[in-house]
Amino acid sequence: MITYASLSKEGNRSVNEDYIGFHEVDGEILFCLADGLGGHGRGAVASEMVVSKSIAAFAECKADDVLVNCFLSAQEGLITEQDKEGAKDEMKSTLTLLVIQNAVAYWGHVGDSRLYLFRKNKLFRRTLDHSVPQMLVATGEIRERDIRFHTDRNRLIRVMGMEWSSPKYDLSDRVDLCNGDAFLLCSDGFWELIDEKDMLKLLKKAVTADEWLAMMEKAVLKNGQGKNMDNYSAMTVLIKE
Question: Residue 162's domain is classified under what CATH number?
């Protein structure tokens, strides 16, 4: 059995440039989360565009390369909208996608909106940010835990809406699901204010996807007190027999 919950909030900003969505058909589910970049509402247009285009592509195609079609359709739609609005440098977005079908999960992402998979009370998988700090981790210059507080944490090296000479998304392999698996998709406004240790601690206390999400949001708000909180969005997905 699959249960899921979602939220998307403005934080302390006047406009929510995050966007989430999901689509279920014939027992297959696509979960989408995007964080728009550009300000002045342009990011909001971008994030909604890449999510809506991904959902449309998913609904039309059930081939093994469905995520490739989602990313390419989202990219094409966003580039077209940029040209239409004369906003090439102002309409970009992260995009994280998760597909669950027939007891198998696979995912892909561009940018720094993350996907976590927790299994057997441990962090089993996490997407790697397409950001300057993540590059510094890869070269050994900083530690993983330093990403949240790094001065360049918002500098992204890959986003939807960049001109691609080759696709910039990363795709996972296919993972057979296990009873108790828990997925979290979230924007940086969410994961910057709660670490993986607390995500897991609250997961152990939760019975439902809604409970886990509500407890994490409470922690995010507590840790965000006195800060100019960014938009924050998250989706939780629990697999239980």
Answer: 3.60.40.10
Report the 10 Å Cβ neighbour count for 79. Answer: 17
181 closest CA partner among 209, 145, 139: 209
Please state the domain count of the chain: 1
Q: Which residue has the higher pLDDT, 87 or 9?
A: 9
Q: What is the pLDDT of residue 122?
A: 96
188 CB-side CA count, 13 A: 25
CA distances in angstroms from 20 to 33, 121, 220, listed in the order given: 4, 26, 18
Burial class (CB in 10 A: 0-12, 13-18, 19+), 236: buried
The per-residue pLDDT for range 14-59, each reduced to its tens digit, is 999 999 999 998 889 999 999 999 766 789 999 999 999 999 999 9
Name the residue range of residue 79's domain: 2-239
Write down the pLDDT at residue 40: 63
